[in-house]
Automatic annotation (TrEMBL), chain A:
Naturally occurring in which organism (per UniProt): Flavobacterium agrisoli
Topology relative to the membrane: Single-pass membrane protein
Residue ranges of coiled coil: 36-125
Similarity remark: Belongs to the ATPase B chain family.
Protein name per its UniProtKB record: ATP synthase subunit b
The protein's assembly and partners: F-type ATPases have 2 components, F(1) - the catalytic core - and F(0) - the membrane proton channel. F(1) has five subunits: alpha(3), beta(3), gamma(1), delta(1), epsilon(1). F(0) has three main subunits: a(1), b(2) and c(10-14). The alpha and beta chains form an alternating ring which encloses part of the gamma chain. F(1) is attached to F(0) by a central stalk formed by the gamma and epsilon chains, while a peripheral stalk is formed by the delta and b chains. F-type ATPases have 2 components, F(1) - the catalytic core - and F(0) - the membrane proton channel. F(1) has five subunits: alpha(3), beta(3), gamma(1), delta(1), epsilon(1). F(0) has four main subunits: a(1), b(2) and c(10-14). The alpha and beta chains form an alternating ring which encloses part of the gamma chain. F(1) is attached to F(0) by a central stalk formed by the gamma and epsilon chains, while a peripheral stalk is formed by the delta and b chains.
Gene encoding the protein: atpF
Pfam family, one: ATP-synt_B
GO cellular component entries: endomembrane system; plasma membrane; proton-transporting ATP synthase complex
Bilayer-spanning residue ranges: 12-32
Function field: F(1)F(0) ATP synthase produces ATP from ADP in the presence of a proton or sodium gradient. F-type ATPases consist of two structural domains, F(1) containing the extramembraneous catalytic core and F(0) containing the membrane proton channel, linked together by a central stalk and a peripheral stalk. During catalysis, ATP synthesis in the catalytic domain of F(1) is coupled via a rotary mechanism of the central stalk subunits to proton translocation.
TrEMBL record, chain B:
Gene3D superfamilies, alphabetized: ATP synthase, F0 complex, subunit A (1.20.120.220)
InterPro entries: ATP_synth_F0_asu, ATP_synth_F0_asu_bact/mt, F0_ATP_A_sf
Name this polypeptide is given: ATP synthase subunit a
Source species of the chain: Flavobacterium agrisoli
GO molecular function terms noted in the UniProt entry: proton-transporting ATP synthase activity, rotational mechanism
Cell compartments where the protein resides: Cell membrane; Membrane
């Protein structure tokens, strides 16, 4: 201990103190301050980047959920539309069927009526034809019958004979 | 601090082991010493005649030292500060490679001269009519002849105020310069924006800065207040670490193993701790809340003592660890000279290198560990001084009074 005290060099202590203080001041100004602030800035940057990445991830997730939902909606909508279309188709088919049936019936009826009409007309025509034909036949017959006087008188007599005077 | 105990304990064991081996070696080699010493006196005669030419009045008796004593002296000399930066020297010719550093004395005015005037302690420096002499790495005022009046092994000559740029001061300046260069270059990389990553060596430094911030300052001082103390903690951490590492190089620098340096660092922690302390800290020291009054009276002196023992432990821990490490490494290198006879030259070099490499690896760990522990404990002390004691305030405010806190 005595030896240590004896060896103690105040000159060295003095210089060490000065060098240390100057070194601290110089390094603090030119090294530690920029280094530490840069490190801190970098760490803050990394923290921010991580936070924003996390946010982006969350947003992405939300977006994906949204997409899923929209997809689901679209799917259900499509299903509904398909169903509706199918229903409509069936209805249309049924309607068309009904309509066609009605139309057909109507046409048949019309045809029937027309046929009846035609028949009637033809009938009438036939009737008139027959009547005129019979008339002309009758006329011809009469002309033939009554070509001479004898036959005329014979006929008249015959007819008169037929007509019984009651 | 569980981790710190292990290497220190290991070091202690190694130190113990080394001592026993050294003493063992001496008893074995005693017989060979006689043959060895027959040659050494001849050299010494030559040396002494040289020395008497160079320095007339050397009080130290330069009698023949045994290798063991020489090694001890060399280790002690290494652990101390020095006025010149010697890289290596040749003992026989007295030639040394290195450079002298400026000596600054305050003795009736400022005296600045080169340490080369001392000629490695052999000569008396004459500066403006005053004579100075170095004895055991201390400068004493003396006369032209360089006589030192010894009293119980210590010179009692007047010592001028010594503010020399010694080897340690020079190393400190060098280290400070390296630190400034390293970290200003790291700071420059961030000029392009915080996301510009450092390149090259700065890439190593950035995680270390983050380590000090996240592992040392934040958990000990607290999230809110740590920023204020970061410059001190970072500077001290890197300064101690770099000094420790430089101490492991063959340059022979031993700055953190000097008590004045560790004392200065510990004083800084003491000052910062106590000047940033809040009311609660002082309250806990002088009038401990939550204990009965007689206990308060007993605790106050203990706590006051605690203010000083905490930095004191910092000072001693760093000093002792580094000094021990340097002693062990140098002692292991000395095996080369001590065991030359028993193990042959190649064998002793092999054994020494093996052990030195092993210890040096541990020393690398210790270099980091001591810097870490010093910074860690400093931040712990600062944290204790600045933390908020919500806990105690809440209890004294409620109706139960202070007695309740004793239970809590």
């Amino acid at each position: 201990m005595e030896k240590l005290l004896d060896q103690f060099s105040y000159g060295l202590f003095f210089w060490q103190l000065i060098i240390l203080v100057v070194l601290i001041v110089l390094l603090a100004k030119f090294a530690w301050k920029p280094i530490l602030s840069a490190l801190e800035a970098r760490e803050d940057g990394i923290r921010d980047a991580i936070a924003s990445a996390e946010n982006a991830r969350k947003e992405m997730q939300a977006l994906q959920a949204d997409n899923q939902r929209i997809l689901q909606e679209a799917r259900s909508e499509r299903d509904a539309m398909l169903k509706e279309a199918r229903e409509m188709k069936e209805k249309m088919i049924a309607d068309a069927k009904n309509e066609a049936q009605a139309e057909g019936l109507k046409m048949i009826n019309q045809a029937k009526a027309a046929i009846e009409n035609e028949k009637n007309v033809a009938m009438a025509e036939l009737k008139s034809h027959v009547s005129s034909l019979s008339l002309s036949i009758a006329e011809k017959l009469l002309k033939e019958e009554l070509a001479n006087k004898d036959s005329q008188t014979k006929l008249v007599e015959k007819m008169l004979g037929e007509v019984k005077l009651n | 601090m569980v981790i710190s105990k292990k290497p220190i304990g290991l070091l202690a064991v190694m130190l113990l082991g080394m001592f026993t081996s050294v003493t063992m070696a001496n008893t074995v080699t005693d017989t060979t010493h006689t043959t060895n010493e027959t040659t050494t006196p001849v050299e010494h005669v030559v040396q002494e005649t040289e020395e008497t030419h160079a320095v007339a009045h050397v009080e130290e008796g330069h009698e023949a030292l045994s290798p063991k004593e020489k090694i001890t002296e060399h280790i002690q000399h290494h652990l101390l500060d020095s006025y010149d930066f010697t890289l290596f020297s040749d003992e026989e010719t007295g030639h040394s490679v290195g450079f002298s550093l400026p000596v600054i004395l305050i003795d009736n005015g400022l005296k600045v001269f080169s340490a080369s005037k001392f000629e490695h302690g052999k000569a008396v420096a004459n500066v403006d009519g005053n004579y100075y002499k170095v004895y055991h790495n201390k400068i004493y005022k003396t006369d032209a002849a360089g006589t030192l009046e010894m009293h119980e092994g210590h010179p009692i000559n007047e010592k001028p105020l010594d503010f020399s740029i010694t080897k340690n001061v020079f190393s400190l300046l060098l280290t400070a310069l390296i630190l400034i260069l390293l970290f200003s270059s790291l700071a420059k990389t961030y000029k392009k924006g915080p996301n510009a990553l450092p390149t090259g060596f700065s890439r190593v430094l950035e995680p270390l800065v983050i380590f000090v911030r996240d592992e040392i300052a934040r958990p000990n001082i607290g999230e809110k207040k740590y920023k204020k103390f970061m410059p001190y903690l970072l500077t001290v951490f890197f300064l101690i670490w770099l000094l420790n590492l430089i101490g492991l190089t063959p340059l022979g620098i031993n700055v953190t193993g000097n008590i004045a340096v560790t004392f200065c660092l510990a004083i800084c922690t003491l000052i910062i701790t106590n000047f940033s302390a809040n009311k609660d800290y002082w309250g806990h020291i002088f009038w401990m809340p939550g204990v009965p009054v007689p206990m308060k009276l007993v605790l106050a002196p203990i706590e006051i003592l605690g203010i000083f023992t905490k930095p004191f432990s910092l000072m001693i821990r760093l000093f002792a660890n580094i000094t021990a490490g340097h002693s062990v490494v140098m002692g292991l290198i000395a095996i080369i000279f001590l065991f030359k006879q028993t193990l042959t030259t190649g064998g002793s070099i092999g054994v020494s290198m093996l052990l030195t490499t092993f210890i040096s690896v541990i020393e690398l760990l210790v270099a980091f560990l001591q810097a870490f522990i010093f910074t860690m404990l400093s931040s712990l002390f600062i944290g204790m001084a600045v933390q908020d004691h919500h806990h105690d305030e809440d209890h004294t405010k409620d109706g139960l009074g202070e007695h309740d806190n004793a239970i809590v």
